[in-house]
Fold each of these.
Amino acid sequence: MKIIVDARGLSCPQPVIILREALRSKDRASIEVLLDSDTSLENCSRIAVKDGCAVKIEERNGEITLIVSRK
Amino acid sequence: MNVKNFLGIGPVIAGSIIGILASLLAHFGNPGNMGVCVACFQRDFAGSLGLHRTSAVQYLRPEIIGFVLGAFIASMIFREFRARTGSAPVVRFLLGMFAMVGSLVFLGCPWRALLRLAGGDLNAFPGLAGLASGIYVGILFLRRGYNLGRTYRAPAIAGILMPAVMFVLLVLFILFPSFGEGKGFFISERGPGSLHASLLFSLGAGILVGILAQRSRFCTVGALRDKILTGDSHLLKGVIALLAAAFLMNLFLTLITDETCLRFSFIGQPVSHSNFLWNFMGMLLAGLAFTLAGGCPGRQLFMSGEGDGDAAVFVFGMLGGAAIAHNFGLAAVPDRILESGALQVGGPSANGIYAVFLGLVFCLVIGLFAGKTCERSSR
């Protein structure tokens, strides 16, 4: 199951908190995190990598999608 | 787009340079253990604009202007400037106000707590303990869903306003230095406000710090928050680097000059009081307010420079808090050695104590009620 986390416009450290909630869900295949700031992107990437996941970044019109998947 | 260097050593570099510059700024004229203090400098800033009339603490600190302009320059160069606003501005104003009240009861922001420790002021310990406790209480709220709501994109001009205001103030300050009441900026002739490094050095240091901090996301409150919340210590390394660099620079200056920049004691420290309880309580309030607002006072200035209108509102809240703190006698009084040689222990006034409790109640109410009710999924 793909989980979409909308962390756009949230201030620190909320994007990380809601990504961590999603990382804990057991039936996920991948997580798409919608972001709009480089700071949140860096923080979320760091948490996902620390959790043993692979991350991929897609950027379109200033909006960023971080795709988090199990390695 | 490649994965960014999110494990970089940016905060360590930023922290080290801030520590060295802070020590040098104090050596070249800023008050003792106050090379950089975001709260004290915003208090002086408010005084220079005449928002309060405590004549000892009035100066348009160029470091503050530099922080905002440096962050603005870096965010433009690296294409990270993004005008945004709309997340509970009134709450953020009041959080800024009470964060300032708490800081002025301690006599310093988290940055200065570290710099005071680096200069041997042991009163920083209860302050840092209060800061950590305040951050911890904030984390309890964050864990149960505390949220002030989303920011939204805004027209670029809305984000440029804060750097523009700072730039205009700088130009006015250079063109029309103080002439006294009703004629220009207020500048202290005695007291901490009269102690400052040259305008060029202060401004240059401020801009450099602004650039480095914008790039590295340096944040003294985020450092401890992230360590407790997620175990992530990359910001904390920056804070430790600041402390170590300022300590070593103070040690170096003490050894090579006839100035004493490092002396371990509780009493006789510059612009500091040795009232253990209120050093703790002041920073407890400040730490909680900063955590609820999403970052330390420096970080708020840097974010206001990269287009965050909500951070700018928090900064204005801090200026307002400084005005209220001095107009109503809430700020603490430093320790003083009397002519007889006796020590007069400083600390907050009764009004200051009431204000800290009021601030704590405010923060607890916000922490409890700005929570899950905030709609998260749509925008």
Note: Chain A touches chain B through 30 residues (CB under 8 Å).
Amino acid sequence: MRPSLMKQVPLFIVLLLFCIVNLTPVAWGFLTSIRQPVDAFAVPPKLIFEPTFQFHWEIWVDKGFWRFLINTAIVSIFAVTISVSIGSMAAYALSRLQSKAANGLLFSLLAMRTFPHILLAIPFFVIAQALDMIDTYPAMVMAIVALNQPFTIWLMRSFFAEVPGELYDSAVMDGCTPWQTFRRVALPIVKPGLWVTVLFSLLLAYNEFLLALVLTRQGTKTMPVAIAEYGAEDITYWSLSAAAAIGIMLPILIFMLFMQRHLVRGMAAGAVKG
Amino acid sequence: MASVTIRNVQKSYGALSVMKGVDIEIADGEFVILVGPSGCGKSTLLRMIAGLEDITDGDVLIGATVVNDIEPKARNIAMVFQNYALYPHMTVRENMAFALTLNRTDKAEIARRVDRAAEILSLGALLDRYPKQLSGGQRQRVAMGRAIVRDPQVFLFDEPLSNLDAKLRVQMRTEIKELHQRLKTTTIYVTHDQIEAMTMADRIVVMKEGGIEQIGTPLDLYDRPANLFVAGFIGSPGMNFFEGEAKGGQFVTTDGTVLPLPEGHQTLSGKIVYGIRPEHLTVDDVGVAIDVHVVEPTGPETQIFGKLGGQPIVVALREGPAVVPGETLSLTPRLDRIHLFDATSGRRLEVTTLGRAA
């Protein structure tokens, strides 16, 4: 049934407020990126100014930030592919094993998630240095996969857990091998959930700051580190770092727009029921 | 098609034994229904035949082959599940073709078999739909189609109708029976609904607590239940039981009401249970009086709930008698329809076993 208008109006107001609170910093960032620093920090705020895209041009072309975006993309794509592949296989196995060992494993994975990142960043640095892998893509990819794996396993497991057991029995009766049951029955059913997992692990990899700070140098530096280096120094650079921040938001935004249909289905309850 | 033999099959989970030596011989082409209350082991037995559960001890044979250690797909059996278990990401056609696709059957052959099954079940117009676009009855038919397409030696049904509404259930019951008459494939069907069992089966296996209570045709079970459990389980409304004692050629209930004993049982004496089905009591002025509590007309018959002495009784009468609650009604049990059971073992007392029982 369609909710009545009386109920929709308050909901609409709440959502509107929520959007304003969340989007104001983004809007402010965008405004900062198209203004001279002097205007951006004027008190009271200067509402009439001459918009300029010079900072966007400067940061992406003159300062060569496109290289950092490519680094970020390479690291993210590999990290997501590896961690979602391993994550879905592990999650499938753990969802079907009803043993104490499986539960123990799941909870130890969760415990790993609670470690402060800095606690893990230091050993990662030591390992990478010992292997002479500082400032290489594989070091970054492996560290991000290791960090995000518990998350992808837990998320995927919750989707697999919704698949009715009879479907697996049916697959066995139809002659599926264990791999075929996973690949041809279980995985297609949780596809909306798979896309949700891809998105979240992409966000984690794409925004990863601490590991990138520790493990990368000039060659493989990613966007979050590159921007931070600018933002911290001097007020005169803030328009530049705002322009960069707006820039790295766009690929994720576009990805989400394309995935929107899958994401909504994945987040809706009972997505796998026929 | 093939026969199925279940030979001393047992099942335990660790130290917990849930099935204690079950034997059933199912002939080629037979429609056998396993029926019993929940937890009686009927689904477990079906899953052992399918190969979805390990057999702790004993043998399951399909045809002449012991299949204990043969994996499900090599047993050449198809199963229809309670919740249909259709693959939600596949169309009806893909669902039906899946098993054949997996064993790399020729594409033209798959199409031919799917079309034939679709025709048998009138699913032709639905082949390109997804399960979520189908009604419950249609999904059930697709699940059956998926089984037919494989042309198996044995069909297994695990409570296939329990998710359908009452009207559709009756309709699907007939369809399944027709399907069996047409294909003549050996069928083993699990249900907890005794009416389903009575209407569809060639033979019924009544199970309780992991063991078999009785195997027989529907009318065998109705006319000659082997024990109190089967007598109470088969028939609706259920059989009336009265506890009491046989003496002097009569039966006296614990509260003193006297009921006649059938021919051949007059010499019986001792504690017994007296059983009579609601439909086997007739209105008769010289009978025993019951207090009428509730009168329920169902159309073809009228069910009367009351008390005989202190014990509850249900009567089903074709001709609705003019009684209202609070009145009494005089009834006589049909002598040829009386069932007598041993009070301690619950076993049926046959005329031939009288010597031993008495």
Note: DSSP finds nine helices and 19 strands in chain B.
